[in-house]
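BUG: 3D viewer hangs when loading the predicted structure for this chain

Environment: internal workstation, default settings.
Expected: structure renders.
Actual: progress bar stalls at 90%.

Input used:
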Amino acid sequence: MSDETQQPVFQIQRVYLKDLSLEQPNSPAIFLEQEAPSIEVALDVGATPLAEGIFESTVTITVTAKVKDKVAFLVEGKQAGIFEARNIPAEQLDPLLGIGCPNIVYPYLRANIADVITRAGFPPVHLAEINFEVFYQQRLQAMAEAAAAAPAAAADGATTH
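Structure tokens produced before the viewer hung:
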């Protein structure tokens, strides 16, 4: 093989909105509330191989706004991208899919979430920047802790009757 075929390749093939939902269970009464809503944000990322060297990366955000104990709105959006990643060392591929790709996809999702909240009649929610490297490291640590706890739990289960 020539040197050219062994060069690392990373390209965005497509970025798209995969899923978007809006719920306003207490509208229109919630619009009469004067109190500012409390906002909760949940984040998840994922990566799925589609073909040799082709991956889908997703970022999912759920925004829940509540006034007192009533839900003003709940928005869930999933933004995705298709990326070509070839000739990338295995130890670099997982961070690329867990950090690099979400960094590319997230700004699109952020804009779509703000837009749908505004179109729903609420003031826009401007989601903060996310450090996907820290998020990635936290997920690795949580998976390592879960793996370490699993053999201990299995051993405890085997000795107790």
